[in-house]
Amino acid sequence: MKVELILPRERFRSLRRRNVKVLIEESLPRVEDTLRAEREEALLERIAKLEEKLHEMEGEIEELREFYEKALRDKERMMAERDRLRVENAELRKRVEEKRRELEKVH
Fold this sequence. Notes:
single chain, 2 helices, coiled coil
Protein backbone atom coordinates (compact mmCIF):
# COMPACT_ATOMS: atom_id res chain seq x y z
CA MET A 1 0.00 0.00 0.00
CA LYS A 2 1.38 3.35 -1.04
CA VAL A 3 0.48 6.53 0.83
CA GLU A 4 1.42 9.97 -0.45
CA LEU A 5 1.38 13.02 1.77
CA ILE A 6 1.53 16.54 0.45
CA LEU A 7 2.86 18.95 3.04
CA PRO A 8 3.75 22.59 3.07
CA ARG A 9 7.50 23.17 2.82
CA GLU A 10 7.86 24.41 6.42
CA ARG A 11 6.05 21.39 7.79
CA PHE A 12 8.19 19.06 5.68
CA ARG A 13 11.40 20.65 6.99
CA SER A 14 10.25 20.24 10.59
CA LEU A 15 9.36 16.61 9.98
CA ARG A 16 12.68 15.84 8.28
CA ARG A 17 14.46 16.05 11.59
CA ARG A 18 11.96 13.71 13.30
CA ASN A 19 11.29 10.04 13.00
CA VAL A 20 8.12 9.92 10.85
CA LYS A 21 7.31 6.36 11.88
CA VAL A 22 7.25 7.34 15.56
CA LEU A 23 5.19 10.41 14.74
CA ILE A 24 2.64 8.25 12.88
CA GLU A 25 2.51 5.72 15.70
CA GLU A 26 1.93 8.51 18.21
CA SER A 27 -0.87 9.98 16.09
CA LEU A 28 -2.56 6.67 15.39
CA PRO A 29 -4.70 6.52 18.59
CA ARG A 30 -6.08 10.01 17.92
CA VAL A 31 -6.77 9.15 14.29
CA GLU A 32 -8.51 5.92 15.32
CA ASP A 33 -10.63 7.84 17.85
CA THR A 34 -11.54 10.40 15.19
CA LEU A 35 -12.48 7.71 12.69
CA ARG A 36 -14.50 5.85 15.32
CA ALA A 37 -16.36 9.06 16.25
CA GLU A 38 -17.07 9.87 12.59
CA ARG A 39 -18.32 6.34 11.98
CA GLU A 40 -20.51 6.49 15.07
CA GLU A 41 -21.94 9.84 13.97
CA ALA A 42 -22.68 8.51 10.50
CA LEU A 43 -24.36 5.43 11.98
CA LEU A 44 -26.44 7.55 14.36
CA GLU A 45 -27.60 9.70 11.44
CA ARG A 46 -28.50 6.60 9.49
CA ILE A 47 -30.39 5.16 12.46
CA ALA A 48 -32.32 8.42 12.81
CA LYS A 49 -33.27 8.36 9.12
CA LEU A 50 -34.33 4.72 9.34
CA GLU A 51 -36.42 5.40 12.45
CA GLU A 52 -38.11 8.30 10.67
CA LYS A 53 -38.84 6.07 7.68
CA LEU A 54 -40.18 3.39 10.02
CA HIS A 55 -42.58 5.88 11.63
CA GLU A 56 -43.77 6.96 8.18
CA MET A 57 -44.33 3.36 7.16
CA GLU A 58 -46.20 2.61 10.40
CA GLY A 59 -48.48 5.59 9.69
CA GLU A 60 -49.10 4.34 6.15
CA ILE A 61 -49.84 0.85 7.46
CA GLU A 62 -52.35 2.28 9.93
CA GLU A 63 -54.04 4.24 7.13
CA LEU A 64 -54.21 1.10 5.01
CA ARG A 65 -55.63 -0.87 7.94
CA GLU A 66 -58.36 1.73 8.47
CA PHE A 67 -59.13 1.79 4.74
CA TYR A 68 -59.32 -2.02 4.63
CA GLU A 69 -61.59 -2.20 7.68
CA LYS A 70 -63.90 0.45 6.17
CA ALA A 71 -63.92 -1.45 2.86
CA LEU A 72 -64.88 -4.64 4.69
CA ARG A 73 -67.72 -2.86 6.52
CA ASP A 74 -68.93 -1.36 3.24
CA LYS A 75 -68.78 -4.75 1.57
CA GLU A 76 -70.83 -6.32 4.37
CA ARG A 77 -73.43 -3.54 4.08
CA MET A 78 -73.58 -3.92 0.31
CA MET A 79 -73.99 -7.69 0.58
CA ALA A 80 -76.76 -7.24 3.15
CA GLU A 81 -78.47 -4.71 0.88
CA ARG A 82 -78.08 -7.08 -2.09
CA ASP A 83 -79.67 -9.90 -0.11
CA ARG A 84 -82.51 -7.61 1.01
CA LEU A 85 -83.11 -6.54 -2.58
CA ARG A 86 -83.13 -10.15 -3.77
CA VAL A 87 -85.80 -11.00 -1.22
CA GLU A 88 -87.78 -7.90 -2.12
CA ASN A 89 -87.42 -8.69 -5.83
CA ALA A 90 -88.62 -12.26 -5.28
CA GLU A 91 -91.65 -10.97 -3.35
CA LEU A 92 -92.46 -8.45 -6.09
CA ARG A 93 -92.18 -11.14 -8.77
CA LYS A 94 -94.53 -13.31 -6.73
CA ARG A 95 -97.07 -10.47 -6.45
CA VAL A 96 -96.79 -9.67 -10.16
CA GLU A 97 -97.33 -13.32 -11.00
CA GLU A 98 -100.39 -13.45 -8.72
CA LYS A 99 -101.83 -10.28 -10.34
CA ARG A 100 -101.19 -11.75 -13.78
CA ARG A 101 -103.06 -14.94 -12.84
CA GLU A 102 -105.96 -12.92 -11.45
CA LEU A 103 -106.12 -10.88 -14.65
CA GLU A 104 -106.04 -14.05 -16.75
CA LYS A 105 -108.92 -15.46 -14.75
CA VAL A 106 -110.97 -12.32 -15.34
CA HIS A 107 -110.48 -12.44 -19.10
